[in-house]
Structure formats: C-alpha cells, structure tokens
Design goal:
Elements lengths: L47 E4 L11 E2 L6 H9 L6 E4 L2 E5 L3 E2 L5 E3 L6 E5 L5 E3 L5 E9 L18 E5 L4 E10 L5 E7 L9 E6 L2 E5 L2 E7 L6 E8 L2 E5 L12 E2 L5 E3 L2 E3 L2 E3 L6 E2 L6 E2 L1 E4 L2 E3 L20 E8 L1 E4 L2 E3 L4 E8 L2 E4 L2 E3 L14 E6 L10 E4 L2 E3 L4 E6 L1 E2 L1 E9 L7 E5 L16 E11 L5 E6 L1 E11 L4 E6 L6 E9 L2
Parallel strand pairs: 1-2, 1-3, 3-6, 4-7, 5-8, 6-9, 7-9, 8-10, 9-11, 10-12, 11-13, 11-14, 12-15, 13-16, 14-17, 15-18, 16-19, 16-20, 17-21, 18-22, 19-23, 20-24, 21-25, 22-26, 24-27, 25-28, 26-29, 27-30, 28-31, 29-32, 30-33, 31-34, 32-35, 33-37, 34-37, 35-38, 36-39, 37-39, 38-40, 39-41, ...
Length: 513
C-alpha cells in the first residue's frame, strides 16, 4: 500500500463575471391583501406582492406574471422597494430567463418551498451582491446554462450558483434547490472583489436543502487575492442529498464544500445532513486555512457514490469518498455520525488541533465490498508534514462499528491523543482490522515524518474475529497504549518495527472472546 497525497492546487485570479442590465417593466396594481409565510414576522413597510401566472393571488398583487420572463416583474418589484422592504411572491411557478438582483436590506419572501418555485433558465441566477438581504420560503431550480463567452468577453456564469451570495449579513431561510450539471452549485458563497470588496462574513443558512442535483449542493469559494477568508458562516438543519446523481458538473461533486479556494474561519454547522453524494458529504479542500470550524450533531451517510478507480491508493487526490473530509486546520466534530460511506467515515490529514468527540462510524465501505481495489477506512489519520499543535488531534469517546475495512488507520502521526475509542468487528484489509502506524516505505508521499506514530497516547477497546490480526502496531516511537483487546483472532495484536521508545503495552489487556 502506498499513500498518495494531493499536490497543491494552483490559485489563479479569476475575472469578474458578467452582469447584464436587467430590464424593468412596471405593472400598476393595488394591494388589497398580503401574502405571508406562516410565522413570518411582519415587515416594517407594506410588502410589494408579485403573483405567478395562474395564481389565485393575482387580485391582491401589485405585479402579475405571465409565465414568460417573470424576472422582469420580480425585478421591477425589487427596484420599487423602500429601504428594508419586502417583496412577497405568491404560490406558483415563476419562470425566469434572466437574473435577479436584490437591493440592500431587501427580503424576498415566498409561500414555502413546496408552494413557490423560481425556475431559472437562459443563464439566470439569483444574485445577492448587497448587504442585509434575506431569502425565505421558496424553491429554486437552474438548468441548461451555456458558456456565452466570445473572443472579447468571458462568461463565468457556469462557475456560479443558482443562488450566489457575494455580500455579508445575508440570511437564507427555508430555501430548497436543485440544478443540472451545467452550473457549479445550487448555493454558492463567493468572495469576488469585483462585485463585493469587503470581507464576506455573517451569512446563515437555516432549513435549506439541495437535492437530486448534477452539481455541488453548498459551495464556498473566493476569487482574487484580497479578503479570501470567509468568516462566521452558520448552517442549521440544512441538507445536501444526492448531489452529483443527475450527471456531474465535474468528478469531485460534494454535498457541502466549505473551502474550495477560500480560507474559512468561524464556521458553525449544526444538525445538518449529507447523504448519497457523488464524493464527500462534508468537505474542505487541502490548501485553504481552516480556523474555528465546529460541526455539531451532523450526519453523513452513503457518500462516495463515485466508483473506486482500478488503481486506487489511500489518500488518492482524485477520490475522496468520505463522510467528513478534513485536511488540516482547526476543525471540531461533536456528536457526528458517518454510515456506509464509500472510502472513509472520517478522513483527517495534517491535523492542527482537530477534535472528534463522541463521533460514530458504521459500515464504511459496505457498498464497495466486492470492489477489488477498495480500501475502506472508518477513521483515517495521516500526517505528511510537521504540525505545530500538541496534541495535533484528540479523539474522545469515538466508535467504529462493523467497518468493511480498517476500523482505524493512523500513519505518520505525531502527538495524537486517542481516548476511549471503541472498535467493533471490522472486516479488515489484507487480514488486519486496525493499522496503528505504518512501515516507513508506506508513509505518505513527500513525508518528513520518520515514524508510523510517535509521541502519542492511544486508549481503545477492540473486539472482533474476522481478520487474522485485529490490531497491528507498526513502526511506533514513544507511544503508550491502554485498554482491552477482546478477540479469538489468530493474532489479536501484532507488534513490529518499533523504534526508540517503541510501544508501551503495559496497560493493554488482551483477552479471548
């Protein structure tokens, strides 16, 4: 086995995307009633009402759409708003062949995602480029985007999102969406200094959902070289389901990607779900800096739907397949769960203060058990460079249940603290249930670390009889083990290739099942 790490991604400055002037048509109407989402707070000013074609709300509307180019009427209503005003969309479908742009402080309010739908075509987008905007209570769909670049202009629409947020202090509540494979994301949080130069911060997504897409569900990104850190973003009760199931924008479509080219700080992800996505459920790219990122009670199931490559190596940069993909940085997972993901339940590389507390993995690799090249790993902790934090990673009260590969793989890692870890009945890889350390010739590519594990503490309870060796301890230096191994496997524990200080097994009990 050779562990392969990803090369640094290039970071080129991208030009500003085109924004065509939106035509404005004013249709005179009289407000005789208001359409409000149940439970929504009353606006400080009288809302402007826009009715979809065929909606029974037409009599109460200021603007009435005819089902063609409905963005014209919606944009006219938005442009007519007083500061802090609200445009209310009726039930029904709004067919938008162009883009919408909300003024600062505006609210766009539908009747709920099951009742109000915005269907974007003709490269139409919902753009938030002014501060203080709220989107609430509707569904979006984007399809058939085309590259309209010419010899003298560059069209970057396909690299945007059906909902693209550029500006700070934005709220996206109860908005669901989907898109085909012709655009990069359903929901995109993008710092583009040509659109919004200040730092992008204070954005929240609550009760939002991206499902059955050909592209990324939720994506963060940054263009240019200034203010690349996106700060204080909150996700609550959001889900990304089957992203990449309807074609694929590219081969790396994930449910949530919080750091593509941007750095990220102050991220909070609570009660969110990633399920059935082409690649990772919850994902960060390798190069960006991650600071103060906390996940609470999140679930990642059945991700990594992309087939294993025939020549797969652990850490292959072209195959993520993880429930949680965490390359470096300060990331905390509390009470999170991963089940049935293709390659990894939890993948960690070069940790700089990573904490996993009370996390549970089960049946990683169950859908790829018949694939010869598959090497599923429940908890994978790799290190290829020195890290400054000590401990570099803390795992406390975490569990691996019924893994179809290694329940735990730790390779090249320094200053790890693993406490109260439980591993139950792993199937193993090459006759081994958990690999703690690795021979020096199998350390990650370009690794500066010369030991499989060093200066670490590992406390575990492991049980199971399926592999020949339940726990393999290889190439350790100054590692203290404790806990219990309960197994009737031919070799419950195997120790080899220890370095100076070796592996202290004094407090590790080995018992028959």
């Amino acid at each position: 086995m050779i562990t392969r790490l990803r090369h640094n991604a290039s970071d080129s400055t991208r030009p500003r995307p085109p924004f065509a002037d939106l035509p404005v048509v004013l249709l005179v109407g009289v407000v005789v009633g208001l359409l409000l989402v149940p439970g929504a707070a009353a606006a400080p000013t009288v809302p402007i009402v826009v009715a979809a074609n065929g909606s029974s709300a037409a009599a109460a509307a200021n603007y009435i759409c005819d089902g063609l180019d409905d963005q014209v009427e919606i944009q006219a209503a938005l442009d007519a708003l007083p500061p802090g005003g609200t445009v209310v969309l009726s039930d029904g479908t709004f067919n938008c062949s162009g883009s919408l742009a909300l003024p600062a402080g505006a609210t766009l309010l539908g009747q709920g995602a099951e009742k109000t739908s915005l269907e974007f075509s003709g490269n139409g987008l919902l753009n938030v480029s002014e501060e203080g905007v709220t989107l609430d209570g509707f569904h979006v769909r984007g399809s058939n985007y085309v590259n309209a670049s010419t010899n003298t202009t560059l069209d970057l629409t396909q690299w945007l999102g059906v909902v693209t947020v550029y500006a700070s202090h934005t709220k996206v509540h109860s908005v669901t969406g989907t898109a085909d494979a012709s655009i990069q994301a359903v929901f995109l949080l993008l710092h583009n200094p040509n659109v919004y130069a200040p730092p992008l911060e204070d954005v929240e997504f609550v009760n939002c959902r991206a499902a059955d897409t050909g592209t990324y569900g939720f994506l963060h990104n940054a263009w240019g070289s200034d203010n690349r850190t996106i700060k204080n973003v909150r996700y609550e009760n959001c889900s990304a389901i089957n992203c990449g199931s309807n074609g694929a924008f590219n081969q790396w479509v994930t449910g949530f990607n919080f750091a593509e080219l941007n750095d990220i700080e102050g991220l909070r992800v609570t009660d969110c779900l990633a399920e059935g996505n082409l690649e990772s459920g919850f994902h960060f790219e390798w190069d960006p800096k991650k600071r103060d990122c906390i996940f609470s009670n999140c679930v990642s199931n059945n991700n990594g739907q992309k087939p294993y490559p025939d020549d797969y190596l652990v850490g292959d940069p072209d195959f993520f397949g993880a429930g949680f993909y965490l390359p470096g940085g300060e990331v905390t997972l509390l009470d999170c769960r991963a089940e049935g993901n293709g390659a990894f339940g939890f993948f960690v590389i070069n940790p700089e203060g990573v904490l996993l507390y009370n996390c549970t993995e089960s049946e990683t690799g169950r859908n790829s058990a018949a694939v010869i090249s598959a090497k599923p790993i429940s908890y994978c902790i790799l290190q290829s460079l020195p890290v400054s934090k000590s401990p570099s990673i803390v795992m406390d009260h975490c569990r691996s249940l019924g893994s179809y590969g290694w329940g735990l793989f730790v390779c090249g890692t320094e200053n790890a603290l693993i406490r109260n870890f439980t591993m139950t009945d792993p199937a193993g890889i090459d006759g081994v249930g958990a690999m703690l350390g690795c021979p020096s010739h199998e350390l990650p590519v370009n690794s500066t670390i010369d030991a499989g594990i060093s200066d670490s503490v590992i406390d575990l309870v492991a049980s199971g009889d399926r592999p020949q060796t339940l726990v393999s301890i290889v190439n350790n230096r100054n590692v203290v083990y404790s806990g219990r191994i309960v197994s009737d496997a031919p070799r419950p524990v195997a120790v080899e290739w220890t370095l100076a200080g070796g592996a202290d097994l004094t407090d590790l009990a080995v018992l028959p099942a």
